[in-house]
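Hi R.,

As promised on Friday, here is the backbone we talked about, encoded as C-alpha cells. Could you run it through your design pipeline when you get a chance and send me back a sequence?
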C-alpha cells in the first residue's frame, strides 16, 4: 500500500499506523465558535506538557512502527516557544518523510523563516473568512491582517504546497466559497473546505449549520461549471480533491456527512502525552507515564503496537448513525476532561 514499509503495524481493519498529529500545546490565541466557543477553559498542567526531547523520542518509536508523516498542531502550535528546535529534532529522523504544520497564521510571519530553516517543508493555514469583521465576530480575534501576513510570509520563504483550511459554517462563511477559492488561487495555495464537525469542544454544533460536501459541490458547480473529481491521490488523505473547469484544484474534508474511517491511518498525541486512536475516541492511551518512569524504547513500542493492532475505531461513521445528532459533549463533560476538546487533541 502507498507509503507503507514492511515494519508498518496494521489495525484490525488493516489500516496502517502511518500518520500522526502531534499537539504541542492546548492553548490557542483564537476562540473560533466551532472549536472554543466558551468563555473559560481548563488547561493542561504545565508540568505534564512533554518536552521537545520527549516528543522526539516518541516520534522515533512511532517511526520504528511505520509512521512516516507528522503534522504539528495544537491549540495554536506557534504559541509554543522555540518550535524550530522541535522541527530540527524531528527532521533528524530520515524515516519521517513528511513534516507539516497546521496554524491559524497569526504568528506565522514572525516564525516562517526560522521554521523553514529548521527543515519544515509544508504549512497549512486556517483561513475561514476573507472579512476581518467576520473573524472578529466569529473567532473573537482582531488579527485578520496578521493571518494574511502569515500566508504571505509562508509563500515568501518557499514552503512547498501551501494549503488553506476553511471550516464552512452555514450563516457564517458559506457565502464565501467562491471568494475563498479565488483567494487561494491568487496566493498559489490549495484550499480545503472542511465540513463543520461535532467534535468535542463544538458545543454550538447543530446539523443545520453543516454545509455538506454535496451542497458545496452543487453551489460551486452552479458558479463555475462542471467540477471533476481527481483520482489517484493518496488513499489515506482526508480530503477528496476536485478540479474546476479552469484547472484550479481544491479539496473537501467531508468527515461529517461522508466519513473516511475505512482509510484512516491517523492518530493524535496530545501535548501531555495522551495518544488518541480516533478523533472521537472516549479516552487515550497514556504514553507520558511510561516515558517518565523509565520505559525502554522496546517497552514503548510494545504498548503502541498492542494498542494499534487492537484498534477498530470508526468514530465519524458511528456519529453518522446517531439519529438525533447534537454536540458530542455538554460543557460540563468537557470541563471534567479537557482531553475531550479538539484544541487539546489537535485538529
Ligand atoms: N490552531 C491551529 C489552526 O487553527 O489550524 C491548529 C489547531 S486547529 C484545532 C486544527 C483544525 O481543526 C483547524 O483547521 C480548525 O479549523 C479545525 N477544526 C476545529 N474545530 C472544528 C470543527 N468543529 N469542525 C471542523 N473543523 C474544526
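Update: got your reply. Pasting your designed sequence below so it's all in one thread:
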Amino acid at each position: 500500500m502507498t507509503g507503507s514499509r514492511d515494519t508498518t503495524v496494521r489495525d484490525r481493519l488493516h489500516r496502517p499506523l502511518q500518520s500522526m498529529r502531534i499537539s504541542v500545546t492546548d492553548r490557542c490565541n483564537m476562540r473560533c465558535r466551532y472549536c472554543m466557543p466558551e468563555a473559560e477553559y481548563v488547561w493542561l498542567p504545565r508540568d505534564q506538557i512533554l518536552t521537545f526531547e520527549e516528543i522526539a523520542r516518541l516520534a522515533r518509536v512511532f517511526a520504528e512502527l511505520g509512521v512516516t508523516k507528522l503534522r504539528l498542531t495544537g491549540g495554536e502550535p506557534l504559541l509554543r516557544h522555540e518550535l524550530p528546535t522541535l522541527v530540527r529534532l524531528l527532521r533528524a529522523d530520515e524515516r519521517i518523510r513528511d513534516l507539516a504544520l497546521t496554524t491559524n497564521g497569526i504568528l506565522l510571519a514572525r516564525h516562517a523563516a526560522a521554521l523553514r530553516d529548521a527543515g519544515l517543508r509544508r504549512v497549512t493555514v486556517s483561513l475561514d473568512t476573507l472579512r476581518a469583521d467576520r473573524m472578529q465576530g466569529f473567532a473573537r480575534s482582531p488579527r485578520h491582517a496578521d493571518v494574511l501576513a502569515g500566508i504571505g510570509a509562508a509563500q515568501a520563504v518557499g514552503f512547498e504546497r501551501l494549503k488553506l483550511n476553511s471550516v464552512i459554517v452555514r450563516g457564517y462563511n458559506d457565502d464565501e466559497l467562491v471568494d475563498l477559492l479565488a483567494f487561494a488561487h491568487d496566493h498559489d495555495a490549495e484550499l480545503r473546505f472542511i465540513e463543520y464537525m461535532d467534535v468535542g469542544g463544538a458545543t454550538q454544533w447543530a446539523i443545520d449549520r453543516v454545509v455538506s460536501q454535496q451542497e458545496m459541490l452543487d453551489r460551486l458547480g452552479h458558479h463555475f461549471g462542471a467540477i471533476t473529481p481527481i483520482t489517484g491521490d493518496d488513499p489515506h488523505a482526508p480530503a477528496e480533491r476536485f478540479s474546476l473547469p479552469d484547472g484550479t484544484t481544491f479539496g473537501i474534508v467531508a468527515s461529517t456527512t461522508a466519513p473516511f474511517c475505512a482509510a484512516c491511518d491517523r492518530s493524535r498525541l496530545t501535548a501531555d502525552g495522551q495518544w488518541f486512536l480516533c478523533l472521537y475516541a472516549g479516552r487515550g492511551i497514556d504514553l507520558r507515564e511510561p516515558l517518565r518512569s523509565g520505559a525502554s524504547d522496546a517497552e514503548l513500542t510494545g504498548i503502541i503496537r498492542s494498542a494499534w493492532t487492537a484498534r477498530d475505531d470508526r468514530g465519524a461513521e458511528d456519529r453518522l448513525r446517531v439519529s438525533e445528532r447534537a454536540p458530542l459533549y455538554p460543557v460540563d463533560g468537557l470541563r471534567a476532561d479537557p482531553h475531550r476538546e479538539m484544541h487539546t487533541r489537535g485538529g
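One thing I noticed while checking it: The chain has twelve helices and twelve strands.

Thanks again,
M.
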